[in-house]
Design brief:
Pfam families: DMRL_synthase, NHL
Strand content: 25-35%
Helix content: 10-25%
Radius of gyration: 23 Å
Number of helices: 5
Shape: globular
Catalytic activity: (2S)-2-hydroxy-3-oxobutyl phosphate + 5-amino-6-(D-ribitylamino)uracil = 6,7-dimethyl-8-(1-D-ribityl)lumazine + phosphate + 2 H2O + H(+)
CATH topology of the largest domain: Neuraminidase
Organism: Rotaria sordida
Structural class: alpha+beta
EC number: 2.5.1.78
Order of helices and strands: EHEHEHEHEEEEEEEEEEEEEEEEEEEEH
Pathway: Cofactor biosynthesis; riboflavin biosynthesis; riboflavin from 2-hydroxy-3-oxobutyl phosphate and 5-amino-6-(D-ribitylamino)uracil: step 1/2
Distance between the termini: 36 Å
Number of strands: 24
Number of domains: 2
Strand order of the largest sheet: 2-1-3-4
CATH class of the largest domain: Mainly Beta
Length: 419
């Protein structure tokens, strides 16, 4: 056989019978070849969200294999304006490859003719695993089995100071992939610095100055020429926002004492951790109100509805799931959207500190790869970055500091570029 031509995924243009954000979309996806199917599914869902489809109007159903897709789509079709079917068939040595492929395709075609509902067939047929990876994956994928060099490379700072190529007490970091930029909360210099990652120069640009001790930074695309920058201000007890390159800050939300963690979802709601009050807040952009979504006000504890000095947070922009680095409980908590209680995703559910692979000692930052759902955690006192695979009972060290000083500074934040 000749080497197949790899076809890159392109956005789907759905028919629009009504206002786009009122469309109800069903997604049927397989758990077989879960990693690559997950990559494809997340890209399709992001296209839907970018097209103003509301996340609450997307129903996702998981089936074991491609053969079950047509039957499940038939159940979803009456309740949806369109059904997207996602799976992956790899021929390899599979003798019944053609039979399954033809059966699925014919079943979906018949369903569309019978129901009148658009049934979008995204079940890919590939000859090899290499072809499957090329068709499903983005240009760069962080594999669950990836290994890192044990020696780190300095991409910003390295010398204490306030010059453009220096930092002093950097804390939160954010990689803005569309422009390949690194944003740094330069705590003691009271500024937000930006560094270009695709250039050899280590000179930074100050995008926000006179920022009262920023502990974290988040960058979001608002459709302007420049992204919107958010900063958690530890000593000003609030979150500030800079829109489209503006030098003037605007406060979002109310008071957030010793504000540390910050995240933004697809609807531009802002999440902020308040460690001294042991809770996480959510500011609604639509209603301009702030609510408590995790923890109990001024009631620290290790029960499922409590937190103890929460710091870094991550919001799953697709599903609204909140992840919290629950520092003094030595764990990472996962809170589903609108849940009253969290569950321990990593570390000790009882709040016990440790230095083994199943434990943390003061975890201060967490990020989640929203394709593979792998957690990356900055384990402060153990001077290491831990990787936790889905459903794992222990983590794996992927980076470690050589001394207390270097680790406490260089490993204070963690961010996955592919999010």
């Amino acid at each position: 056989l000749e080497k197949p031509t790899y076809i890159k995924f392109v956005p789907i243009n759905l028919p629009v019978p009504c206002i786009s954000n009122e469309l109800k979309i069903g997604i049927v996806r397989t758990s077989w070849n879960e990693y690559l199917v997950g990559l494809l599914t997340e890209r399709i869902k992001q296209n839907l969200l970018d097209g103003k489809i509301h996340s609450d109007n997307i129903t996702e159903v998981l089936v074991p294999r491609s053969f079950e897709i047509p039957w499940t789509a038939k159940i979803l079709a009456p309740e949806c304006d369109a059904v997207i079917c996602i799976g992956l068939l790899i021929k390899g040595e599979t003798m019944h490859f053609e039979m399954v492929s033809q059966s699925v395709a014919q079943g979906l075609l018949n369903l569309q003719l019978e129901s009148g509902v658009p049934i979008i067939n995204c079940v890919l047929n590939c000859l090899t695993e290499g072809e499957a990876e090329a068709r499903c994956g983005p240009d760069t994928i962080i594999s669950p089995c990836a290994r890192w060099n044990t020696t780190g490379v300095t991409v910003a700072g390295g010398v204490k100071g306030n010059l453009s190529d220096q930092l002093d007490g950097p804390e939160g970091i954010f990689v803005y992939k569309p422009l390949n930029r690194l944003y740094v909360a330069d705590f003691n210099n009271q500024r937000i610095q930006m560094f270009l990652l695709n250039q050899s120069s280590s000179t930074g640009v100050t995008v926000a100055s006179n920022v009262t001790f920023p502990s974290n930074v988040y960058v979001d695309d608002d459709g302007n020429s420049e992204p919107t920058v958010y900063a958690a201000l530890y000593k000003s007890d609030c979150v500030n926002q800079w829109v489209n390159g503006s030098k003037e800050a605007v406060q979002v939300g109310g008071e957030c004492r010793s504000c540390t963690g910050i995240a933004v979802d697809n609807e531009k709601n802002v999440y902020m951790s308040e460690p001294t009050r042991h809770r996480v807040l959510k500011w609604s952009r639509r209603t301009n109100t702030t609510t408590i979504i995790a923890g109990q006000t001024d009631q620290p504890g290790s029960m499922s509805n409590q937190l103890r000095r929460p710091q870094g947070i991550h919001i799953d922009r697709t599903h609204g799931t909140l992840y919290v680095a629950d520092s003094d409980n030595n764990r990472v908590q996962k809170w589903l959207k609108d849940a009253q209680d969290g569950v321990t995703r990593a570390g000790s559910s009882l709040g016990v500190a440790g230095n083994d692979s199943a434990s943390f000692s003061d975890p201060i930052s967490v990020t989640v790869d929203e394709v593979t759902y792998i957690l990356y955690v900055a384990d402060f006192n153990n001077r290491r970055i831990q990787r936790w695979l889905p459903n794992a009972t222990e983590g794996e060290t992927i980076a470690q500091g050589s001394s207390m000083f270097s680790a406490s500074k260089s490993l204070i934040g963690v961010f996955s570029k592919e999010n």
